[in-house]
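Form 12-C: Joint structure prediction
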Amino acid sequence: MIKINLKLFVTLSKYLPEDSECFEVSENTSVEKLISDLGIEDGSVKLIFVNGKKQDGKYLLKNSDRLGLFPPVGGG
Amino acid sequence: MGTLEFKERYDRNFNTLSHEEQKKLKNSRVAVIGLGGLGGCVCEMMARVGVGSLTLIDGDSFEASNLNRQLLSEENLMGVPKAKAAKKRVNAINSQVSADCFIEYLDESNMYEQIKNVDLAVDCLDTIDSRFILQDAAKKASIPVVAGAIAGMTGQVTTIFPGDMGYKLIYGEKREKESKGVETITGNIVCCVFFVASLQSSEVLKILLDRKDILRNKLLITELWSNTFEIVDLT
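Section 2 - Result
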């Protein structure tokens, strides 16, 4: 198992697990698998970023990664 | 503006801005597209800092639900067009700024016409599809766009130059049915509105003055409950 720092923004925050700053996942779990495992609705994540860089759902998580999931934000 | 008045009015801008930079702002033309929460604040800052020419566009009028966050809204302005109130505000703050207001909604048919003669457009719109239309029009006009968007206590800012992938990197492919974001659920809190408008305004200054650290191909994300502030590399 590896530990990642998980941050879910705005409406996604309701899916935030306990210990999100030190969240355990299996090594080489893809971001899309994690999204699905957390029960996050399909299509509600618009932007995935890992360690400050945009990634897609195929990205395989590594120990100490900082993962952020962001929904569509469009208000003015 | 006379030299003396120029020096007095902008005295506290110096020497964070040089006199040459202040003159450059005076000769700059900025369009503020959307005059709700973000746009009203951006207007105020453009006028105070001394951007010489402002084009202010919004087809909407004030209603009671704007009062929680929109700087230009007042109880006695219900039903008044936002563009008209914005021009009045700019004129009251800085008579040396030329402000043109347009009470109209922008779409593919008129967006380019409204921005073709400015140096920069500030995206303060409230739908995702209209943001894509602005990006396309700005590409045609060869000008940058400084974009802000908000939902609840979360906000984002980026700068898009002509030819950049821009919104596609943030929202994916344009889809009409997803025209609104999660702000329809969260609403918008005034602290976040003013904060994101400030980030947009400083980004405008940096671009107009050829300074560094522009948010090009980067998305600044902020979440105020947790004091999160992150710049994401979009490339």
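Section 3 - Comments
The radius of gyration of chain B is 17 Å. Chain B touches chain A through 43 residues (CB under 8 Å).
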